[in-house]
Amino acid sequence: QVQLVESGGGSVQAGGSLTLSCTASLIGYGSCMAWFRQAPGKEREAVAAMYTDGGRTYYTGSVKGRFTISHDRAKNTVYLQMNSLKPEDTAMYYCATGYGGQWSPPFQGNEYKYWGQGTQVTVS
Question: Is the distance from CB of 78 to CB of 65 less than 8 angstroms?
Answer without folding.
Answer: no
